[in-house]
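Task card 7
Instruction: Convert sequence to structure tokens.
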Amino acid sequence: MANSGTIIMAASIAPILLGSCATVMQGKSDPVKFATVPAGGSVTVDGTIHKTPSTVEVSKKTTSATFSLPGQGSKTGKWDRKFQEDYVLMNVIFTPGMGSSGTAVDTASGAIWQQPESVTYNFKTGRTEIAMKPPGKSHPTTGNPKRTGKR
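Output:
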């Protein structure tokens, strides 16, 4: 039989672990397609260099990358992530009274954010071009469509 201290500890930790819906369902990274215009460059993201175009698994906390192109030098491209408010609602529904702890875990892990589908640095214009995932697009890891609340 488990002692009362173990039961109390498990009961205290369970809502935090079970309530972090985005961390459990979406993970801490997203695949992002990186490219340069003109083609033939490279991108440094999360400390790793990749030739462009390429799809890279990017931490959900990341908001910039360094793009390089021979003869053009290096430029930093920055972007905004999308806040996934539906996971805040899920935390509140699935852990009544403890939803804020699940949201705190999701925010700290970065899972509450969604990275763009693609990021292109255009050396001709000096601009970073972003394409966000359309609503309802399947999550690349699970293949499950994102629920929109409509049935």
